[in-house]
Structure prediction request, 87 residues.
Amino acid sequence: MDWNEAAQDLLHQILMTTPLPVRQQIEGQIRQVADGIADGEGKSRVGVNTVVEAWIKTTPEALRGELPRQMERLGLDPDEFTGLLEG
Prediction:
């Protein structure tokens, strides 16, 4: 699956907030889920919104409460992803 530059940059920013010992594992999980989402939607490229959706889906529910604050730090509007954050 092809990733656009903005999606790659966002993934890198997310990974920089991830503890080093699990960074590779998290990267693999987010990439796999994002590729699956894009493929399921018939897309040939992964974009920023797909990365955010994969990030939310791979974050354990107990830690999802922190995601809106992390999103804001990365310049994202968590309100755009309310449905995913709640479900």
